[in-house]
């Protein structure tokens, strides 16, 4: 029997004693106004219907409620509120059972936590990921979670924001039963009937104080947690606010008092600059996957086997991505010894993950079994996608693509992992099918870094682009499209920053001053620490060294970065860096030779020259059509280079500073910026119009 509940994205039917309230608000059943309305009306109607003795709350489509509707934040609230619906569920007279599939996240999981019982299918995941949006669970999550899992676990969960598997939820008491995959509705109805038959109570999480009392007996719990995670939380506001909420749950006199703290801290975060930037980044990532002339109907290649040329650090890391999702890989190297070495490194990485508990030992073997090696290019003949990951040498790459053209099966996508070379020129070597060639630029370490720059050459077929974007998503990367130019989006902007950083060192700033300013801004490290990590001798040789730059002189002294114990910095055995007198000496000598005198350079100039030069280059990239949209540039820098997500990305940051401010400052700095520096016409125009990149 169907019951009319009035407006809202939900329907109510009665089966025996059970009312089944189904929410249907595609694509992810976000708690938009219509969903909240449906929940509230449906619950009220179920309570009013005498035939209904217990209620199952279930969702249609691919997932349970995936959280508050993020697009509604920052707009005037539309009634009913989520709290209203939650109260009706929790305080109502009938047991409510949440039936969870897909992902029950954020406000969605907070609704489930208001239900008296929860059942889930094995593939379901639950979590409170608000921290990734610069927020905290603002619908009672921080108060209910520690009441079930304890304060320590709750701290971990809300600050990491991870999605937790159903079996782990069962162990922790977050769900009460797992029902067979594909039988959620029937399983939840049976569970509800059991609740009725056994006369189980209307269990309310808010009333369970036992775990909180245990936490009260641990006075240093919160201080210890803060200290242990200080580095991880550096720069972010939301983790600290989440911690304060769990603290309030433990120390408040009542559930409602704790909830009031949660509410007020949530309201503070939601209007703050960090959360705005992080919400922008959430949608920017999703937007990056959309390419105007390529849609869901564009054919793509089904990738059943991947070939990778080069089993070095990059090739091995790339291979791991595919093995992780069950796709077999053929690795090709020139010598058996290089192949063996590469595979041994991959095995060591997997075993390291197993030691840290991230994967099981059988999984290590399963993944290794997916990797096969060969010293023959011919072994790539049956691959659907081949990724070339050899060192950056155009002649070598062209030779490889010439061979691939002859060897690979028709329809295969041929990708290059070049980080800077001209993809059009590489494609020209695949004489009979340049349209099959696309750039797939992974970032090091390739099995860890989230970004994949997909580079579309002049002739690249839509199918090749679609395949690269889709497979990128499948292996868990954030893929962003770039056109062809030296360094593509990411490294071209990096080069603009490096030019300023290098120039400032020859004007009087020390490398560690520049690194410190960028680290304090929120970057994982500054340009000089990054160079030391990557190795200063990339592309350097003693024979061709001219000694014209600091880097060359460092290399000439065998200071090639962390791996040699010295670079811009000196390193101890544990790779701790200290400023180096040798570097100071090299800088002073070079400046003397060039007739330069050191001047004081303050932190503001360091930051502005680095970041504004990046913005200027990014504006050129956008203007030239290398990037499709400003937000793609931000996606690249947040996911590939560690730009602090709470500052959105270079373009978002530029808008927050004001484009007029940036232009005026760049104009004032013109004498320092160097003769090669020119202002982007787009930046100038937008600044003059009072426009923005991301607005
Ligand atoms: C919260 O709940 C606060 C509360 O504590 C307090 C309240 C008072 N809202 O990712 P996909 C869109 S904060 C609006 O490609 P998938 C998304 O933009 C929220 N839209 O799919 C995309 O749109 P389009 C806490 C949303 O299958 C489409 O749905 N919850 C939302 O790869 C498909 O998304 C979260 O943080 C939303 N909440 O992954 C969960 N979610 O097609 C955020 C998605 O136009 N969401 N969209 O590009 C996710 O993590 C993933 O979307 C999910 C599905 C895992 C659910």
What would you note in describing this structure?
There is one protein chain. By secondary structure, the protein is of the alpha/beta class. It has three domains: 2-268, 2-enoyl-CoA Hydratase, Chain A, domain 1 (Alpha-Beta Complex), CATH 3.90.226; 306-487, NAD(P)-binding Rossmann-like Domain (Rossmann fold); 508-593, N-(1-d-carboxylethyl)-l-norvaline Dehydrogenase, domain 2. The protein contains 29 helices and 20 strands. Strands 13-12-11-14-15-16-17-18 form an eight-stranded mixed sheet, with helices on both faces. A seven-stranded mixed sheet has the order 1-2-3-4-5-7-10, sandwiched between helices. Strands 6-8-9 form a three-stranded mixed sheet. Helix 4 (141-149) crosses helix 5 and helix 13 (313-324) packs across helix 14 (336-355). The longest helix is centred in the C-terminal third of the chain and has 21 residues, at 603-623. It starts with a strand and ends in a 6-residue tail after the last helix. 49% of the residues are buried. It binds (S)-3-Hydroxyhexanoyl-CoA.
């Amino acid at each position: 029997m169907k019951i009319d509940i009035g407006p809202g994205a939900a329907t109510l039917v009665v089966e025996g004693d059970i009312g089944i309230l189904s929410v249907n608000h595609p694509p992810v059943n976000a708690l938009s106004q219509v969903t909240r309305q449906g929940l509230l009306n449906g619950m009220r109607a179920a309570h009013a219907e005498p035939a209904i003795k217990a209620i199952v709350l279930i969702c249609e489509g691919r997932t349970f409620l995936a959280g508050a509707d993020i697009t509604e934040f920052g707009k005037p609230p539309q009634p009913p509120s989520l709290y209203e619906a939650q109260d009706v569920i929790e305080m109502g007279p009938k047991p409510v059972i949440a039936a969870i599939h897909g992902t029950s996240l954020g406000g969605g999981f907070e609704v489930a936590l208001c239900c008296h019982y929860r059942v889930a299918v094995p593939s379901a995941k639950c979590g409170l990921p608000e921290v990734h949006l610069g927020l905290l669970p603002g619908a009672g999550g921080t108060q209910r979670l520690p009441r079930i899992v304890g304060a320590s676990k709750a701290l971990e969960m809300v600050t990491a924001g991870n999605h937790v598997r159903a079996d782990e939820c069962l162990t922790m008491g977050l769900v009460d039963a797992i029902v067979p995959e594909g039988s959620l509705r029937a399983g939840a109805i049976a569970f509800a009937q059991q609740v009725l038959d056994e006369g189980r109570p209307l269990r309310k999480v808010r009333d369970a104080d036992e775990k909180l009392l245990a936490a009260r007996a641990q006075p240093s719990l919160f201080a210890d947690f803060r200290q242990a995670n200080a580095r991880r939380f550096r720069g972010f506001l939301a983790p600290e606010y989440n911690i304060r909420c769990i603290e309030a749950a433990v120390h408040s006199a009542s559930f409602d008092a704790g909830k009031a703290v949660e509410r007020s801290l949530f309201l503070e975060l939601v209007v703050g600059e960090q959360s705005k930037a992080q919400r922008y980044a959430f949608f920017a990532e999703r937007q990056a996957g959309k390419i105007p002339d390529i849609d869901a109907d564009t054919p793509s290649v089904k990738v059943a086997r991947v070939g990778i040329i080069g089993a070095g650090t990059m090739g091995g890391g790339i291979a791991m991505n595919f093995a992780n999702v069950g796709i077999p890989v053929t690795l090709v190297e020139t010598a058996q010894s290089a192949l063996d070495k590469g595979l041994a490194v991959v095995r060591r990485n997997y075993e390291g993950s197993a030691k840290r508990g991230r994967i099981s030992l059988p999984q290590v073997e399963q993944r290794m079994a997916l990797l096969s090696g060969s010293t023959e290019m011919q072994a790539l003949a049956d691959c659907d996608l081949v990724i070339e990951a050899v060192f950056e040498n155009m002649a070598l790459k062209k030779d490889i693509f010439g061979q691939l053209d002859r060897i690979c099966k028709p329809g295969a996508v041929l990708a290059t992992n070049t980080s800077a070379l001209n993809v059009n020129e590489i494609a020209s070597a695949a004489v009979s099918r340049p349209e099959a060639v696309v750039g797939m630029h992974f970032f090091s370490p390739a099995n860890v870094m989230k970004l994949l720059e997909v580079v579309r050459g002049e002739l690249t077929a839509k199918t090749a682009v679609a395949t690269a974007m889709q497979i990128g998503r499948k292996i868990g990367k954030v893929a962003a499209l770039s056109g062809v130019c030296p360094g593509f989006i990411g490294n071209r902007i990096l080069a603009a920053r490096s030019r300023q950083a290098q120039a400032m060192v020859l004007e009087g700033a020390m490398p560690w001053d520049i690194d410190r300013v960028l680290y304090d801004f929120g970057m994982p490290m500054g340009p000089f620490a990054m160079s030391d990590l990557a190795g200063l001798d990339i592309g350097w040789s003693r024979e061709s060294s001219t000694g014209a730059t600091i880097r060359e002189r460092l290399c000439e002294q065998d200071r090639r970065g962390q791996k040699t114990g010295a670079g811009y910095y000196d390193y101890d055995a544990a790779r701790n860096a200290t400023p180096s007198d040798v570097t100071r000496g090299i800088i002073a000598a070079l400046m003397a030779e060039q007739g330069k005198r050191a001047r004081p350079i303050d932190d503001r100039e360091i930051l502005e020259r680095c970041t504004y030069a990046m913005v200027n280059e990014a504006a050129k990239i956008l203007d030239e059509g290398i990037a499709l949209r400003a937000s793609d540039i931000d996606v690249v820098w947040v996911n590939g280079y560690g730009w602090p997500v709470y500052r959105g990305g270079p373009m978002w940051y530029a808008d927050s500073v004001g484009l007029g401010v940036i232009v005026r400052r760049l104009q004032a700095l013109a004498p320092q910026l160097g003769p090669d520096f020119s202002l982007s016409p787009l930046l100038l125009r937008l600044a003059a119009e009072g426009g923005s990149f991301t607005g």
